[in-house]
Amino acid sequence: QRIRVGIVFGGASSEHDVSCMTAGGVSRAIDADRFDVIGIGITPSGRWVQVPADELRALRKQGDELPRLSESRATAVLLPGEAGGARVATIEGDRLVDLHDFDVAFTLLHGPFGEDGTIQGMFELLGLRYVGSGVAASANGMDKDLMKRHLSASGLPGCRFVTVTDRQWRQQREQSIDRIAKLGYPLFVKPARGGSSVGITKVDRADELEQAVLFAQKFDPKLVVEEAVLGAREIEFAVLGGRGAAPRVSLPGEIVMREAGAFYDFDAKYVSDDDAALLVPTEMDDDLRRRAADVAARTFEAMGAEGLARVDLFITADGHVLVNEINTMPGFTHISMFPSLWAASGLDYTTLITDLIDQALERPVGLR
Ligand code: ATP
Ligand code: MG
Ligand code: MG
Ligand code: MG
To answer: In this predicted complex, what is the ipTM?
Structure first.
């Protein structure tokens, strides 16, 4: 029996275009012998729309232009469907038209409302199966403050950090600055809930702190300030798995910055071609690789992640493994780190997509 996959993509976020490109790539690579796709797009203004399969497959980069969803499409809604599935329909006046049932949702959204547990909560209420982490793991993974507390409570190693709310910065300025200064400079100031390095500043001196705090507060009233881990390798693992089975961990990948002291910021991720090199896989001695992969698997489990996640680590010059973060909806174009690491580990893009959908289909719906 063919499985109907609702591909949820776009979104009212800065990653809208990347998400559209990813959705095109996934719908072209998906195993057409087993799956039909239905496009469920979210426009830049946040409206839900239906995108037929052929239009979905046509979403791709053209020249330098990334694809976007047009606002001219009619608004659609999701409705409860048959057991474990849902239904999408387009609103026409006071009627619903163009009704399509589907069996499982595959969201390819990043950031707020995509990987932070909110859309996962909507799927739970609809009784709809979906690829990836549930509500709590998504929300805790998105929030670096909650993430770090979970990891440290689980005995997983991370760098020293403090959390600073906007209220603390306003009303307890001196104490906040003291807590931060104890970490020592340089340090990293980050919005608690972010991604793609947006809002993050590396702060080298005390007199640059205020500006970095005000900048990060534009993205989130809650900030995480971390000691800088210097001279470390930046290593990433792709992890698959979940209920009942031990997480599967890929070979390691590495991010190498061209310039000493630079970090993997937004430009290096998406704009400049030569700020950073991605090594997929990277060389690592067997013992260190096993220790690091074990930290990645334990991070996945400690966060309660399901389906997929990319775990980002630092490995210091003296061989200490520290967790930087988990990303429950990692970049998923065929050239992104997550699929590339699996390809290098023997799982091609099409098989990876099948694996994730099969995991989602096995998962019970309702209370769990
Ligand atoms: P992603 O796009 O991977 O979700 P993000 O926005 O969640 O990224 P981080 O991964 O926390 O941001 O940080 C971005 C980059 O900044 C890292 O890849 C690393 O290069 C650098 N960095 C972050 N924290 C530290 C630290 N404590 N010490 C040294 N470098 C750091
Ligand atoms: Mg992140
Ligand atoms: Mg992210
Ligand atoms: Mg990161």
So the answer is: 0.97
Residue 207 DSSP code: G
Mutate which of 188, 259, 328 for ligand 1? The one with the most ligand atoms within 8 Å of its CB, which is 188
CB 359 within 8 A of CB 307: yes
Structure-token match 């012998």, residue found: 33
pLDDT band for position 243 (50/70/90)?
A: low
Q: What angle do CA 129, 130, 135 make, to 5 degrees?
A: 100
Could you tell me if the CB of 143 is within 6 A of ligand 1?
Answer: no
Q: Which CATH number does the domain 3-130 belong to among 1.10.3720.10, 3.40.50.20, 3.30.2350.10, 2.60.40.10?
A: 3.40.50.20
Ligand nearest to the CA of 235: 1
Q: How many CA atoms lie within 13 A of 199 on its CB side?
A: 21
Instruction: Of 324, 319, 10, 24, give the one whose Cα is nearest residue 160.
Output: 324
List, as own/partner pairs, every contact residues 331-336 make where C-beta atoms lie below 8 angstroms and the sequence separation is at least 24, other chains included: 331/18, 331/22, 331/110, 332/22, 332/26, 332/108, 333/18, 333/21, 333/22, 333/25, 334/25, 334/29, 336/22
pLDDT in tens, 345-364: 999 999 999 999 999 999 87
Ligand 1 within 6 A of CB of 196: yes
